[in-house]
Amino acid sequence: MPIVVNLDVMLARRKMRSKELAAKVGITEQNLSLLKSGKVRGVRFSTLARICAELDCQPGDLLEYRPGPEEEDET
């Protein structure tokens, strides 16, 4: 998938554990883990906003676009 989730990087930079972020944001640790691994099909903007508020970051700090071979062929 061309979208990479860098949530683990931001957690490390903020010296925060997933469990703590999940509690502050109001989602389960399991859902946060799925988000970190990129195994979700979508994320609500309200959830993304709460994560950004807690980590004091921008959505672009958490999400990155890396085109793969299939995306490059389509252009």
UniProtKB/TrEMBL annotation:
Q: Which GO terms describe its molecular function?
A: DNA binding
- Superkingdom of this entry's organism? Bacteria
Any coiled-coil regions, as ranges = none
> In this protein, which residues make up the domain named HTH cro/C1-type?
13-62
PANTHER family per record: DNA-BINDING PROTEIN, DNA-BINDING PROTEIN-RELATED
Name of the molecule in the record: Helix-turn-helix transcriptional regulator
Q: Which SUPFAM superfamilies match?
A: lambda repressor-like DNA-binding domains (SSF47413)
Give the matching Pfam families.
HTH_26
InterPro entries recorded for this chain? Cro/C1-type_HTH, Lambda_DNA-bd_dom_sf
Q: Which organism is it from?
A: Aminobacter anthyllidis
